[in-house]
Amino acid sequence: MKYIQKLLQRSGFFTNVNSKWVDAAVRQKAEVVIMSDASNLRNYDNILNKRVLTGFGKEVHRFEWKHGYRFNPKTKRMVPPSEAKGLKPLTKFEEYTIKN
After folding, report:
1. Which of 32, 38, 65, 94 could form a disulfide with 78 if both were Cys (CB 3.0 to 4.6 A apart)?
2. What is the model's pTM?
3. pLDDT per residue as tens digits for the range 72-98
4. Distance between CA atoms of 87 and 73, rounded to whole angstroms?
5. Local structure of 56: helix, strand or coil
6. Could you tell me if residue 100 is inside a domain?
């Protein structure tokens, strides 16, 4: 529990954990199958009074905007730029600030 609290205090869990696995998956050219429904990319934030990316949404955003991947709805996979022709991003660049 203290480990998780420490991660949350320093830039958040996504930046310290999830972003690293996304980058590792890209480096390893791993096949990334998306099991969640795309409707789970955003939640409504009552404090900000708007929809914001969930952790899953931030993962997809990082694949899309840092690495050029796109979601292929037919195969349910994130595909590299070489296979992404004609596929549109699920997230908007300005929805999240990529930190390294």
Report:
1. 32
2. 0.85
3. 999 999 999 999 999 999 999 999 988
4. 9
5. helix
6. no
